[in-house]
Amino acid sequence: MYHIAIRRKEMVMLNQSITHSVVNTNAPHAVPSAVAPAANPFAEITGHAGLIASEFSYKKDEEIYGEDEPAEYVYQVISGAVRSYKLLSDGRRQIGAFHLPGDVFGLEFGSAHRLAAEAIIDTTVRLVKRRSLEQAAGTDVAVARKLWTMTAHDLRHAEDHMLLLGRKTAMERVATFLLEMDRRLAVAGMMALPMCRRDIGDYLGLTLETVSRALSQLQSQGILGFSGARQIVLRNRQRLRSMDA
Amino acid sequence: MYHIAIRRKEMVMLNQSITHSVVNTNAPHAVPSAVAPAANPFAEITGHAGLIASEFSYKKDEEIYGEDEPAEYVYQVISGAVRSYKLLSDGRRQIGAFHLPGDVFGLEFGSAHRLAAEAIIDTTVRLVKRRSLEQAAGTDVAVARKLWTMTAHDLRHAEDHMLLLGRKTAMERVATFLLEMDRRLAVAGMMALPMCRRDIGDYLGLTLETVSRALSQLQSQGILGFSGARQIVLRNRQRLRSMDA
DNA sequence: CGTCGCTTTGATCTAAATCAAGTTGAGTGG
DNA sequence: CCACTCAACTTGATTTAGATCAAAGCGACG
Prior knowledge:
The structure is a homodimer. Chain A is an alpha+beta fold. The first copy, chain A, has helices at 2-19, 41-49, 130-139, 141-167, 170-185, 197-204, 208-220, 237-242; strands at 54-58, 63-65, 73-79, 82-87, 93-99, 104-105, 116-119, 123-129, 190-192, 224-226, 231-234. Chain A contains 8 helices and 11 strands.
């Protein structure tokens, strides 16, 4: 399983090296470095330590790295969306987090990735070598602190998500999800979900049918509206919050 | 809710300051500092930074700190056991972790505790001021790295636990729990669980009845034996591992 | 404009929750 | 030292939230 995953990844990387060009930081893209440092962890780190960042693109559903694969890089989403997940041997999947533009993912303390990562849609990432980050952290306390910050942020999310997965009802989970996505990707009061119903279900510990039914019910209650299955506008955040347990 | 929690804690602390003595590190107690530094995070940190550590004791079911309470201290279990948990407004509880002798808990990146903590049984902890740790991390990269390590360790556990809560069956959850406790607290092939069935249920996202039924079934299959409800001996770890999904 | 993957909706099933007694055993007081 | 008590635990009966199975819609794309 482990070795197969590695081999598959190497082939993918090879293929990509041919079909995509690797370019320097600050290409004309989303999340420009003009953004305040506090909001852009990579800029903050590279600014401090002068690290080299590259860009890379993945097609929809393409694996970025596998579970237990050596963690060679740390990534930041420039555009697109990524899912991080674990699998059981029979294929059951738990998505631990969705990564949206600006988010850093793939940062590990140990030598291997604890979750696999895949592009949900066509996605471009910025990446830096883990080793160079570690090195910078060894001399620069600000970098070391930033690494801790990022891991602590992931831990906070995981702690909230354990409560959701262990104790919330289906409707409460969906309400929590909608409020999270609203906060993270709403533009002009509307959100364009990059992920399908199955991804949402695997994030919330539900089936895709249960997610669909909950969304339909919220629509019939006038709490949200659709323009196409993945374009959602929240019409009553307050009522949604009251359903979030 | 927030203010009530704080006030309650202050009263508890006050009460304890009177009834328990606060002493220096290296009192004649469990987890001696003779242990290798790598296995004793506190010794490692205090050794580097010369921090002051104190001891403190809590009675069974006593609150150590509340959710959202300012995180003034970081703790290490000397003896006893602690549960960290979140509550929903209607009382549903998700235990995120059990802390056993040697474990560090209560370390936060932000200013407040994300989970509450209670002693499961009479418990003694070692504690250091968070502020002094932060200060040490600001000048000593080794301390900064250690803080990151500890948070990363908690994150790894939370990631594994999300998979359990989102996707494992009741029997798989109980099998995972038994193997975790076997690894962490088995002595002479036997484990003495400090927590009740309800705690186990709230850790695994199950009811206490479901936990009890799973344990009974494992006993009837000869995979484990009881001497009293909380003394368990695993008779067939291999079969248990095969049930862990 | 046809196709195929995604989504919705309906019918049925089931794992685990809930409700409900008993049973056990650790700790207490006589 | 024994018996009493009460919380913890086990076990059984029933219910139910969500899963599973099944079949239409729909909508984006070639």
